[in-house]
Amino acid sequence: MKDKLKWAQVLYLVKKVEDKYGSIKDTPISDPDFKKLKDLCAFTHDNHLNTLTRVSAEKQCNILNKIVEGYTKTYIRNLYHVSDFTIDQVATAHGVQIIPPFAYILHKDGEKDFYFRSKLKDASKFFHHYFVSGRKLKAYLDKNGWSLICKKTIWGSIPIGAQYISKSKADILTKTTMRFEEV
Hints:
Number of strands: 5
Order of helices and strands: HHHHHEEHHEEE
Distance between the termini: 44 Å
Mean pLDDT: 86
C-alpha cells in the first residue's frame, strides 16, 4: 500500500511541475516541487540527473552563455566536450531554453527583417497568405520586393527590432532584448 501512495504522490508532483513549466525536462532543479520529486525517487549522486556536479562552475557558465546566445547543442557539445544531456541539464538548472537556429531571413528595404525556420509555413504566417509551393512563394516575394535569404542564424546574431517566429510557430514577435522570449 505504501508504494501506491508514493507512486500517486510522484505522479501528482510530475503533473504539477509539468503544468508549471510545460515539461518536466524544462523544470529548474531549484523548483521546490521538483526537489520533493527528486527526494521521493531517491536520485543518487551516481544518477545521471546529478551530472552537473562533475562539471566545473566556469564550464557551466560558459555553456549557459552559449545557450542564451542561441548556439546549437552540436556547437556547444564540440566546443566544451560535453554531452547533449549535460547541456540540457545546464539549461534546465538555470531556467533557460535551447533556441533552435533560424534558417531563413526575409528582407525588404524599409521593412523589419523576419527570421524563421520553415519556408512555407512561417512565410505563410508572416504574410497571412497560404503558399502551396516554394515556387508560389518565390513569385509572391519577387512581385512584392522581398528577398529570401537562406542563412542559418543564431539568436545572438539577430538585431534588436527584427521580427521572428516563436518556437511554437504560434506568434510573430519582435526582438526587444537579447533574452529570448516566446510571449
